[in-house]
Design a protein that fits this description.
Length: 176
């Protein structure tokens, strides 16, 4: 990661996440050190071990990760790392949900994202959070435009009788 442009981009994304976490009182457990879309240099085993160590440390009951059929190959790799790290070996993660990402999940017109879990959201809070990621936002009709993100939340909410929701696909759910 000697390229100053890449280092600057990584710092910008990390800073956005840290600022959002601070302002909304979330805890960030850490950041990976992979370079965006640098798939030839990603060590699968190393990443799985890092995620496994984190899971064994904080022992989450629920994990949200990327849908496996996004157009963004980094998302697909992240999905594989997380699912591999969630094998029922040291600690059993009871619930794993796959999330849809605007312009990655929806642009794969043949994907099999079938949401079955819906979480009510406050759309104004979502808009406030998205302000931290202005560099990722686009103008309409892009999927990551403010209007289309709100439309997706309204569409998903309409599936289950809510004003706005986020939709997820269950990968694993262990009932007690």
């Amino acid at each position: 990661m000697n390229d100053p442009k890449i280092s600057k981009e990584i710092k910008k994304r990390n800073d956005a996440a840290l600022n959002l976490a601070k302002d909304f009182k979330y805890e960030i457990c850490g950041f990976g050190k992979n370079i965006n879309l640098n798939l030839d240099n990603i060590n699968h085993l190393k990443n799985v071990k890092i995620i496994s160590k984190l899971i064994n440390s904080i022992k989450p009951d629920i994990i949200y990760t990327h849908f496996f059929d996004d157009l963004n190959q980094d998302h697909n790799m992240t999905h594989k790392f997380v699912i591999s790290a969630c094998r029922p070996v040291d600690y059993l993660v009871k619930e794993i949900y796959l999330m849809e990402i605007p312009s990655s999940t929806d642009w794969n017109l043949k994907n099999q994202f079938k949401p079955d879990t819906f979480i009510k959201i406050d759309i104004q809070k979502k808009h406030k959070m998205l302000k931290y990621y202005q560099s990722e936002m686009r103008s309409g009709p892009h999927s990551r435009s403010k209007n289309n993100i709100e439309s997706l939340a309204k569409f998903r909410g309409g599936h289950v009788g809510l004003d706005f929701s986020e939709a997820f696909m269950t990968y694993r759910k262990i009932n007690k």
